[in-house]
Amino acid sequence: MSNEINATNLNTPITEKYDESSIQVLEGLEAVRKRPGMYIGSTGERGLHHLVYEIVDNAIDEALAGYCTHIEVDILEGDIIRVADNGRGVPVGMHPKMGIPTVEVVYTILHAGGKFGDGGYKVAGGLHGVGASVVNALSEYLEVVVRNGENIYRQRYERGKTVTPLDIIGKTNETGTTVTFKPDPTLFTDTTVYDFDILAKRLQEQSFLNAGIKITLSDLRGEEEKSQTFHYEGGIRSYCEYLLSGKKKDPLHDDVIYMSTANDKGSAEIAIQFNTGYDTNIISFANTMHTIDGGTHESAFKTAVTRVINSYAKKFKFLKESDTNLRGEDVQEGMIAVVSVKLEDAQFESQTKAKLGNTWMGTMVSQMIGEQLMDYLENNPAVAKIIINKTIASATAREAAQKAREVSRKKDGLSRARMPDKLTDCISDDATKTEIYIVEGDSAGGSACDGRNKTYQAILPLWGKMLNVEKARIDKVYGNDKLTPVVTSLGTGIGDDFNIEKLRYHKIIIMADADVDGAHIRTLLLTFFFRYMPALIEEGHIFLAQPPLFKVTAKGSKGKNFRYAFSDEERDTFIAELGGSEKVDVQRYKGLGEMDPEQLWETTMDPQTRTMLKVTMEDAELADAAFTLLMGDEVEPRRKFIEDNALNVTNLDI
Question: Does domain 236-402 have CATH number 3.30.428.10?
Fold first, then answer.
């Protein structure tokens, strides 16, 4: 719907009736079904998996309360989900205010649960008490089975409405809750198919954050069933070790630095592991919810660690009193940290729990680090020396980067006044309507220049071997003859100079050959953007062009009857459509340079016909792990990954 106002409408008399009868009230769970995105973010793949998280989070709440030790999540045939726990079981007695069984209240009424007031959960992952009822509202059906140590109870709901009474179906001496639900395909129109790996990552994360709890995920669809069990007695210490193993970097100290504290309002625990790498990976949680936008606990952590490192460095003469303090970015280089807090009355920005707002928790974290991290460093002087020396080296590199930046500016390497010689710019200077193709090689660049729409499409060819930014600090990036043209063309600068308002093209399209070498080029560029210009990815400016692999032409048609195929399967389909292998010619494009300008335009550059993948960063940790695998020190894992994923080169959700 357009946001523009038609001025002529402003003077038109309003004749439609508008009174109290015009206000629509959505009762019960109708509001959830009407606008599901308000409750689970979207009705796409992310929202589909979020349904599972909401039910699992209820079981996690039982674990936080000390009653649940094992959670089982099964993906059944038809992508039906079953979540079973051995907690206390949802209460089944009549609710004193509602006059219906309490379990029915939990699953059919918004803002009803054990997360309000006294007598429920002291610490809970949920915020508004909407999880169970929202899942129910968005399911074709949901069935809950409760074991309370005496009886087994069952009740069924369909699209949020109760369809059976709460029946006793057996006797038991066990306790727990089992929820089985099928997402409503009329709401989840994009997909109702669950991804085992997406669920596994979330459940593994929950197991790390709740030391000792066992979570089992089983995929029971099809003939090849698979199962994974997550169980970590080390909790977030194990999480740090796991994150480090994914980076293929050496730790600077043998043991994970662990700190914890608690009072009558909540608790906090932090695990830190410094390594030989350059990037930072700080992950924070509040009541086991991943606070992707940080909050008071994460901000306090960063500030306090920097303060303690500076205090120690000056106390033990690594720095003079007159020296400039080390910055947070220096301290955090090569740091992996997990910050997990649990608290009553957690204040989040929204139901998605992206940012924690409780100020007292920040104070609690700051005091804990001030005392316990200083104690650790003083009791482990050898480790402290290694950490401080790395931090000082980081500060030295940062200062070198600043000098390199200034030198680079003087050489006009980062100046907008003079664009790179190889850049063929477009005519329009309206950044919102322009796009730049970063093309592999001069040959493809030439075809792209001849085939483009010069009004709004710019072309920048790349050549030679690019700098592997996984193994380089930012001071090595400045002046690099392969990367500087990219930075100059985009106009934003990098590092401290980055300013997205100066972006010269709102679509940045990486166009490389559909082979292993092309995958390598794409990965190097994505690594660069991820490390030094992440806002370009976060704000949706980076795209991957999808050139065809084949041209299938009917013999005797004088080249007029043809199809472009983007996969082997599509090629075979077109061959069949055009009469079979004996009646067609199949051209395999080994590279973009083999296409003439007209072919490149109609297959890869024409907005009306092209296919592009937008690169996003919904999960920065997964992306970071993929980049490290591809660009790290170990050759064989990288080579195998690229060969297996020549077109889909990262674990980004694109």
Answer: no
Residues 652, 544 contacting (CB under 8 angstroms): no
* Cα–Cα separations (whole angstroms), residue 347 to 51, 210, 296, 314, 338: 22, 21, 10, 37, 20
Active-site residue (options: 57, 269, 440, 624):
440
**Predicted confidence (pLDDT) per residue in 571-590, tens digit:** 999 999 998 888 999 988 87
Predicted local distance difference test score (pLDDT) of residue 290:
87
Q: 458 near 436, Cβ under 8 Å?
A: yes
Q: Which of 394, 398, 395, 401 is nearest to 276 (CA)?
A: 394
String of b and e for 17-36 (b: at least 16 CB within 10 Å)?
A: eeeeeeeeeeeebeebbeeb
List 79, 140, 329, 515, catalytic entry: 515
Looking at domain 30-231, its CATH superfamily turns out to be Histidine kinase-like ATPase, C-terminal domain (3.30.565.10)
For residue 142 the two structure tokens come to 């949901």
Catalytic residue among 140, 450, 517, 570: 517
Is 515 annotated in the active site? yes
440 is catalytic: yes
Out of 24-38, 235-249, 293-307, 526-540, the most confident range is 293-307
* Catalytic residue flag (residue 596): no
* Given 61, 219, 298, 513, the catalytic residue: 513
Fold that domain 414-547+612-644 belongs to in CATH: Rossmann fold (3.40.50)
Average pLDDT over residues 501-521: 85
Task: Quote the CA–CA distance of 272 and 257 in Å, as a whole number.
Answer: 5
